[in-house]
Amino acid sequence: MHIKSDVAISDSGFVFVPATGESFTVNPIGAAIIHMLKENKSVEEVSKQIFENYKTDMATVEKDMNDFVAMLKQYSLIDTND
Amino acid sequence: MTKQILTIAVTGLNAIDSPGPGVPVIRGLKEAKAFNARIIGLSYESLEPGIYMHELVDKTYQIPYPSSGVEVLFERLKYIHNQEKLDVIIPNFDAEMFSFIKLASELKSMGVHTFLPTAEQFEERQKMNLPDFGKKYDITVPASEAVFTAGKLAEVLKEFEFPVVVKGKFYDAKIVYNYEQALSAFNDMAAKWGVPVILQEFVRGTEFDVTGLGDGKGNTVAAVLMRKQYITDKGKAWGGIAITDEKLLKLTKHFIKETKWGGGFELEFMKDKEGEFYLMEINPRIPAWVYLAVGVGQNIPEALTLLALGEKVKPYTSYESGKMFIRYSWDMIVELKEFEMISTTGEL
């Protein structure tokens, strides 16, 4: 599962989709997740990294990751060819 | 080397909530790299704001409404040409395009150049001909039907499922949900724009627009894609963003190649949730949001002028996506004397 290659994200968490002109704002953790997914890391790898970098438990990370990925799919930011 | 000065007449100087393309076209011409533009405004009414924008428009002449006929318009243009020695005319209203297309060769023999679609191209892209157009050029279009009398409305509506889009011959569109609303919209559109009124299948989705320029031989000289971000209650873009979409660009190039379109245009597409693009409308002229195209690197008014003069133009192949336009209104203070002048003499 990958973020569409043309989706651009700035350091401030501003996401821009050149094909539709849509833009979104994500918080720093959301931005970190999108950056990692753009680097072709798997959801599991991203979850592990978040778990290691933030004071939280794995169950919470996995639940939040599922929610976040569902949102990325809903807004068509995920490459459907995967 | 000093740039040549071209005298270019431009219509569409109005700027109501459905603004004309004249002022943005002029802004593009003023930023042209190949020439310096001296602008002659052609107006229909005394309150068109462009008339009073002296930093953009050097002189304005009123011209007769299209309903006055081609001959009356030609006489007026001859007079204006005698005064100003026009090099090029860029008409910007759907309703006047027919007259200018008809006059193109006579104008050319006087030394006034235009770059317009042919009468055939103009005719076959009319709203009422859209289904045949789609079939002929293999472009997906929504089902639509022309209705000439209110008595036929109920019968034609049977072919559609509500909601249905009721469209005026030249402008305006209304989404209706039942027969009563359809009848009211039909009467409104017929009174305003005449018949036929067009019934069109409602396509749920996101609207995308393209402005571009075809060289008349099937080649794309310019094409910029835009998504409306802020829409007025007339459905006009008050803000928009330049986007890149390979599929939509390919469709646009297909349109130009197949129709051998000559001149500026605007294509209105609807993208449904399956990602299919429906061509909803073809406007045979530059749209009011053309300054976005200029701003992202494709000066369509400049390229159109050069093509009108028979010069070779290097096609634009890229532009900066992600740039936006945000429209605003601005109250000008105008001396009564100026209003008096254009109202009484037809010149300012």
> What Rg of chain B do the Cα atoms give?
20 Å
The N- and C-terminal alpha carbons of chain B lie at a distance of 32 Å
Shape of chain A: globular
Give the N-to-C terminal Cα separation of chain A: 6 Å
Mean pLDDT of chain B: 93
Number of domains of chain A: 1
Helicity of chain B, as a percent range: 25-40%
Instruction: Write the CATH architecture name of the largest domain in chain B.
Output: 3-Layer(aba) Sandwich
The number of strands of chain A is 3
Order of helices and strands of chain A: EEEHHH
Number of helices of chain A: 3
Major sheet: arrangement of strands of chain A? 1-2-3
Structure description:
The complex is a heterodimer of chains A (82) and B (348). Chain A has 82 residues and is α+β, with helices and mostly antiparallel strands. Chain A has one domain (8-74). Chain A contains three helices and three strands; from the N terminus they run E-E-E-H-H-H. Chain A has a three-stranded antiparallel β-sheet, covered by helices on one side. The longest helix of chain A is centred in the last third of the chain and has 17 residues, at 58-74. The model of chain A has no long low-confidence stretch (mean pLDDT 90). Chain B has three domains: 4-114 and 331-345, Rossmann fold; 145-201, 2-Layer Sandwich (Dna Ligase, domain 1); 204-326, ATP-grasp fold, B domain (D-amino Acid Aminotransferase, Chain A, domain 1, 2-Layer Sandwich). Helices cover 32% and strands 26% of the residues of chain B. Chain B has eleven helices and 14 strands. In chain B, a hairpin with a 5-residue loop joins strand 10 (220-231) and strand 11. The radius of gyration of chain B is 20 Å and the shape is globular. Chain A binds chain B through residues 6, 8, 16, 18-22, and chain B through 206, 226-227, 229, 240-245, 321-322.
